[in-house]
Amino acid sequence: MTQDQEIAAATLEEAMNWFLRLKAEPNCPDLTADFQRWLHQSGDHQRAWQYALRTWQLMGEAAPAYEHLWAGAPRANVIPITRGRWRRPAMGAVAAIAATLFLVLAGPSLLIRLQADHITATGQNARVALEDGTVIELGGDSAIKTEMSAAGRHVTLLSGEAFFDVAHNPARPFTVEAGGVKVLVVGTAFDVRLAGEETTVELERGVVQLSLDEARQKQDFRLLPGEMAVVNRSDGAITRDTIQPDQIAAWRSGRIFVKDASVSAVAEQLQRYHSAWIAVPDRKLAGLKVTGLYDLHDPDSALKALVEPFGGRVRTFSTYGRILTQY
User: Fold this and answer.
1) What SS3 class is residue 309?
2) Model confidence pLDDT, tens digit, residues 141-170
3) For the whole model, what pTM was predicted?
4) Which domains does the chain have, with CATH numbers?
């Protein structure tokens, strides 16, 4: 075989399909075993897999809120493209492929599972009752860590979204931490969401105090019932607004309400209720702001409603992928 070899379009499509399937089901042993058999069938399969990994890297997707947990993961040893051809990968590159497969596809999910006390799958909601009488409703693809003591109650939202109905107990303050944003309460009901670089808090009843971590200029403020706040974790910017009672944690009734949210943040929320991988590679489209109500029972229609007002399209790449574009 020559140093440079063409890869058939069908093989490239196979590789991308494998990538999306593995991303959709990162903890399926049978699927992983089938993939490994396909990968080692030929050099073309290995080169096509490198192409799939390189495509992922070039997507430039927003980093998840828990990226710091796996920031040290090595990147793929990508073979450069030369006039539409791929160079034969060395054995070291194949090893890098295997490492990247584990860290990119399974890594975040695995690391969150190691930390979480309660976790939900894509499209699954769950109700958690704590020993103090507090009830937490978890949205799809969400995870929390709980720490309960005589002096206080602390919950960390590791991913996704959760609605808290906190049992009143002045002697045991209740704190929720989400991406460096802390919510302190005594007894109240509120929703907290992580999406992109934003932490959103919506207050149904009671009073909560929000504070940003000490890495930035310290900011403390209170929310009253019917108020919401969106904190940009990258620069500490805070947007406060009002919200209708029936729109707070609307995901519990199969909808999501967003107000002045970025397309990428809404796509991330819809991702938690969609079996396919969703990408917004166009940074201009990803940053556009939207306000609306979207149906979680039909996430594909919700994606269309999200981007069509901007002339956008939802491109379906097999059963396992959706790419949002502005052309």
Assistant:
1) helix
2) 999 999 999 999 999 999 999 999 999 999
3) 0.69
4) 4-115 (no CATH), 119-245 (2.60.120.1440), 254-327 (3.55.50.30)
